[in-house]
Amino acid sequence: MADLPNCETLLLNLEAGVLNVTLNRPDSRNAMSLAMVHELRAVLEGVRHDANVRALVLRGAAGHFCAGGDIKDMAGARAKGGDAYRELNRAFGAMLEEFQAAPQVVIAVLEGAVLGGGFGLACISDIAIAAESCKFGLPETTLGILPAQIAPFVVKRVGLTQARRLALTAARFDGLEALHLGLVHYCESSENLDVRLAEVLDQVRKCAPGANAQTKALLLATETQELGALLDSAAEQFAAAVTGAEGIEGTMAFVQKRAPKWAL
Known about the structure:
Elements: E1 10-15, E2 18-23, H1 34-47, E3 55-60, H2 71-78, H3 82-101, E4 105-110, E5 113-115, H4 117-123, E6 127-131, E7 135-137, H5 151-158, H6 160-169, H7 175-181, E8 186-188, H8 193-205, H9 209-221, H10 227-242, H11 245-255
């Protein structure tokens, strides 16, 4: 079962196998504080082994997704010296790693500001739905700093050529350009965001949760593992899946022309 933490910077709502996680610091356009990083990591830990949680939906309160890192946190770290800056920055990167590896389908619903760290969060989502009016950007270099932890995820998402342009110009762009870049999968009017989200969640529910989790891990492994070894491992997983509970149920449902149990 999900073991959800008490949160001050997040709103959590678990319903019908979907955990809605809302970044809730509207006064700062949901800027990413260290406290929020810790709470997001605690949420991930709480649902990591709960197969009943099928999807995580990330969004922001009051019309913005996330305007980047919290400048107040950076100012506070300044008094503690370089180690504090390093630890603050690396904690955010660790959270991105954990989100990317989450067994659930991670869906980002993007509105308003999607800047800096918010841009990084968008890049680790499995499915991203953006409002046409979104304002995306990597503003770090205009502040004299660098997108240290998000850079690898941005490159994986949009490719090195586009990542160089975006990071080295701090260019702002909207949801439609994000769609063209491959940063997001859908670009919608603000009124249609929830309609598209409902459609995506219906699609996710048709997929077996265990098979989804293993498939996600397999896809991510293509970036790091040698091909032959990866295919050997995949063959073993396939054989186990075919004879496992989900494989048997999926096959029987197909033969009997009915929906499998996880889709009901």
